[in-house]
Protein 1
Amino acid sequence: MEKQIFHLRDSNIRRNCIDFIQQLPANPEAPFEIVIQERKRTTDQNKKLWPLLTDLSRQVEWFGQKYAPEDWKDLITALVAKTKKQEQRTAPGIGGGVVMFGSRTSKMRVSEMVEVIEAIYWFGTEQNVKFSDDARLEIEWAKRWGDKNRSAA
């Protein structure tokens, strides 16, 4: 059987999902797995993420270093993980240095991406970054995120 995905947006879709589940055979030897979860990040979130990371890479020097947008993604996702008290793992790099195992934004849920984007705005505002998009509301949310999470960082 092919994977079936329902995006729960209204009561009709809810009924279709329930009907679909009720038609599935119950088999203790080969049970179906039913997963209900928040959807993954949106296209709009991804479109917003990379210009913000590019703004950081162009304008912020961190401990004497300029970093690429990809590096800033790792730094910001590590910040978000730390504020959520998630385990951060590191390992010695095969060719030297240290490798930090970070979160994959491609696997993040919508709410997790909201936190990453808010953290970028908060950090960028702290570093006087002039963001390239008109995002005053997100910057205000980011300030609140920073106030709430500053003690955990």
Protein 2
Amino acid sequence: MQLRYGFRLYPSGPQRAALARAFGCARVVFNDALRVREDARAAGLPFVTSGELSHRLTAVKKTPERAWLSGVSSVVLQQSLRDLDAAYRNFFDGLKGKRPAMGAPRFKSRKDRRQSIRFTANAGWKVTGGGRLRLPKVGDVRVKWSRTLPSTPATVTVVRDAAGRYFASFVVETGPEEVLPTTVPEVGIDLGLGHFAVLSDGRKIDSPRFLRRAEKQLKKAQRVLARKEKGSQNRDKARQRVARVHARVADARREFHHQLSTRLIRENQAIAVEDLAVKGLARTRLAKSVHDAGWSQFVAMLEYKAARYGRTLIRIGRYEPTSQVCSVCGVKDGPKPLHIRVWTCGGCGMVLDRDINAAVNIAKAAGPAVSARGAQVRPGLVPAQRSETGTHPIPQPSTGR
């Protein structure tokens, strides 16, 4: 299984300048290669192969107009071409129905707030004896190591986010020795907005609402940004202050998701969740609260941790009437308005909590699948999270139940 480990980098002034040059050169190579393929498509010529693009890159580095490309590692430039290939591959696979539809590769802008470059083993990068990350034509960069890598990584991706922070991202292979001992409990999870998650055993996890809690600070920072002159350095500083607020919110949300998902994976052998129509809900008046909850990120964590630790994750169809059926007698009372949180079953007379009843029904709906498929429903390779290619998803219409 592949997992991504990220660590904070603290480059010095000259190192930040060298990384900025590398980001810029990788962007130019990506855009040049994309332009070559787009021109060939417009002229009705065959698709330009990766080998041809690589030969053109080697030739263009010898010209006066692009001689400055030699100032960065050649591996970074070649990996930029690989990113373009991956972007096209994702686009074509989406057209063939092999994966969710993706937009065609687009040109990168120097104003893009998130930038990245990748070094493979051929680049000669390494971790020094003093714990620094040695990058070719950049230097030894200070790293904040928060954990030990489970294996030797083959590549490292250096990322600069919108808040101006630098990260080193390692993709490593993990072995089967991380499988947890088998346990008995199985749980169903009903995700919501009032409570982030309600478990079938009756526990309710409150929603932290990280974005809502930071709205006052964010509003102040955005007001300051709006008053700055466009194109000025003060405006860029104000923009970074806004980005730092958003980054703190995202970090807190991610940490909450990690802690909760890890606890649930360790406590339960099987977990059932509902496949929510997040894209559809994100286009309603509840959009801010839906994005603040981050259900998709949480379920993605459950999925890869279940595969990593030998647990089971079952997804229940979004049209399953979990809120309409009594979990005791099975009588279907029909849909109920959202303001009704407690209701009495017309069949058995039980007083039911709406969310707990839904969580129990989710667990029951996944019960036969758990017993039939065994300990691990989704085994095998789980790709590292966070895409590094240049494709962008096309919003697809979806409906909630």
